[in-house]
Design brief:
- The protein is an alpha/beta fold.
- It contains 18 helices and 17 strands.
- The chain has two domains: about 280 residues, tm_1862 like domain (pyruvate-formate lyase- activating enzyme, Alpha-Beta Horseshoe); about 55 residues, Arc Repressor Mutant, subunit A (Orthogonal Bundle).
- Helix 2 packs parallel to helix 4, helix 2 crosses helix 12 and helix 8 packs parallel to helix 10.
- The longest helix has 17 residues.
- The structure holds iron/sulfur cluster.
- The site of iron/sulfur cluster (SF4) has 10 residues, from loops.
- One of its GO terms (cellular component) is cytoplasm.
Amino acid sequence: MPHAVIESPDSLKTFFASCEAVSIRQDQDISGPQSRLPLGVYLHIPFCLSKCAYCDAVSYAGRMQLVPEYVRALHQEWLWYAESGIWRAFRPSTFYIGGGTPSSILDALLALLERLSRLLPLASFFERTIEINPGTVRLPQLQQLRTAGINRLSIGIQSFHDDELRLTGRMHSADDAQRCVREARQAGFDNISLDLISALPGSTFERWAENLRQAIALGPEHLSIYTLSLEEGTPFWRQYQDGMLLLPEEELQIRMYCHTIEQLTAAGYEQYEISNFARPGRRSQHNQIYWRNEDYLGIGAGAWSSLHGVRSGNYTDLDRYMAGASRLESEQTSGVAAPLPPTVEQYECLDHSRQIGESIMMNLRLIEGIDLQRFRQRFGVALEKRYARELEKLAPLGLLDMQDGFLRLSPRGLLLADEVCREFI
Ligand code: SF4
C-alpha cells in the first residue's frame, strides 16, 4: 500500500488511536498485531565530561548537576508517547542510547532503564545499544549494563594515537580503549562496534593505517569510520578559518578511505554503508532504520523523531527541554491532550515528494542501494519513471549502477555521494 501522508500532528494521534490495542505485560514481550510497523527508539544523553574540538552534537560539559531533573524529563516524555498509544501503531524494534556520553551518568541511566522497563520491557527491542566512552567505564559498569539488558556497545575510540586523542580533546587514551574492549568481552558483550575518525589534523597515511590495524586486531563485530568534517562553530572550525589547522589533502583522504575499504574487506568485514562495516549478520539494525528512512522516535534534548511522515525535533537547550517535560507532567495529570509533547520545538508534516526525496537520499548511503520494487510498493510510483531525467544525467558519469532490481552508488559514486544524492531532492 502506498505510504500515507499525515497532514497535521493531530492526525498522528488519530492514527495511533485507530490501531488495534496491544497488551504489555512485565513478564513477557509486548504482544499485538505483527502488521505494526517497526520502530527504532533513540534516547539522547547530552552530558559530557568535556567538549571535543570537532563536536557539534547536542552535548554539554559542566552541567552534571542537571542530571536528576533531565532523567525525570526523559521518563515523562517516554510516558507521554506510551500513553498516546504509540505501541498500538508501531512494534518496538531497536533501542539506542546515544549522546553526549551516556556512560558518564551511568547510575542515573541504569535507574531510568529500570523505570522505563516498567512501561515496556527492554527485551521487546531486539537490539539495545549504548554508546560508551572508554575513559568512563570499567568492568563492573560494563557488567551492570549487560545485566540491565544492553546487548550492543558502540565504543567511541576515534584514534589509537594518544597525540591525536589529546588534540581532539578526547578524555581517554589508546590504552583505555584497548582495555575497554577487553573488559567489554569479559562482561559478556558479543556485539561491539568501534568508532574511528579518519583524516584528523596532521594525520598521515601510515598513521591511519596503524589505526586501522589496531582496530582490526581487537576483532569488533562492527566499525563506523567517518572522515573528519569541520562543523561551524567548533574549535577545529575556528582554527581552520584562522589557518591554524592542517588537514590531510583531499587526495590523501581518498587514499585513506580506499585503504579502509580494502583492509576491512580483507579482514572479513562487509561494507554495507558509506562509512560502516560489519561482520556478517552484525550490521547496526538501528542505524539502518535511518538509512532506510523508516520510523523512529527520539527522546531527549535535541532528539528527532520521524513518525508516519511527521518529523519533529525536541528543544536542544536543556532548560527549555526540561521545562517542556515538566509542563507535560502537569498536562498529563490534568488530562490535556496535545498533538505533540511540549518537549518538541519544531515539526513538519512531510508531503509525498519530500518523503520520496529523503528516502532516496538516505537509501543511497546503503551499499545495497534502493530496492526498486520495495520503493514502488511504499510510494506507489516507479523511481525509474519519476526520476528518469536525473538518472539519464547521472548514468553516463558512472556514478550510479542499476542492476538486479536495485539502484546503487557505483564505487566512484561513493566518493561523491552527497553530490549524487542532491540530484534527487
Ligand atoms: S564525547 Fe562525543 S558528544 Fe561529547 S563532546 Fe566529545 S564527541 Fe561530542
